[in-house]
Amino acid sequence: MKATLIEIGQLTRFTGRYFHELLKPGFEWAEWARQCYFMGNRSLPLVAITSFIMGLVITIQSRPTLVEFGAEAWLPGMVSVSLLREIVPVITALICAGKIGSGIGAELGSMRVTEQIDAMEVSGTNPYKYLVVTRVTASTLMIPVLAIIADAVSLYGAYLGANLRGVLSWTLFWHQVLESLAFGDIIPSITKTIFFGFAIGMIGCYMGYHSSKGTEGVGRSSNSAVVIASLLVFVIDLLAVQITDLMNLN
């Protein structure tokens, strides 16, 4: 228990340092742009394929139940709300936790055990600002972008799923989707992906930055980054749902 509390305290201090360094002048724009490109480019194919399959499968599985109750016309609206509110943001964040979080943890961990970070400190470079601030800021930006793209791809998958056993025009499908959605569905969904991205980037950087014990420590850091970031995604999602529910009640 003591070790856990110490770890939480160190992570809190590590996070607080991020905001302090972010506000200081001299942001590493080139490294930030490079990290944005790598995170988005490497994660997009997997995110797109997964979201397309999710849209297709959920539509196919939802149809029989709606047909049984004579509510097949509700299919596009129901599926779109389910995908955009909850399923796509969480699935995208979990994929990025595995892809981006583990990558950051392994990269910074290998730099730590090979003393590259120590060399940067000795040479007068601020390794935290160059390595951590750029990666956390990039993940905070790119995961919402990936989630928005995944939303569009999943709705296309839902459209194909709706036409597997019926005929639904493109225009009618999107009319029913847009009629069912509201800003109260979209804005909270995108907002929580910002926190997902921040948590994934911060955990990956923390685990890699404090890696030790050679190559074994690098593997442990990468694994811990995925596990803890995935758990945080669910915790943040739970809090976001509760806050959104309270706002709707008011």
Explain the overall architecture.
By secondary structure, the protein is mainly α. The protein has one domain. It is 87% helix and 0% strand. The chain has eight helices and no strands. The mean pLDDT is 89.
Q: Can you give me a brief rundown of this structure?
A:
Helices cover about 85% and strands about 0% of the residues. It is an all-alpha fold. α3 packs antiparallel against α5.
Order of helices and strands: HHHHHHHH
Number of domains: 1
Ends: how far apart? 39 Å
Shape from CA axes?
Answer: elongated
Number of helices: 8
Indicate the percent of residues in helices.
over 70%
Structural class: mainly alpha
What is the averaged pLDDT score?
89
Number of DSSP strand runs: 0
Largest sheet: none
Set down the secondary structure blueprint.
Elements: H1 2-23, H2 29-68, H3 75-113, H4 116-122, H5 127-162, H6 170-180, H7 183-209, H8 214-249
Helix pairs in contact: 1-5, 2-3, 2-5, 3-5, 3-6, 3-7, 3-8, 5-7, 7-8
Short key terms for the protein model shown above:
single chain, 250 residues, mainly alpha, 8 helices, 87% helix, elongated
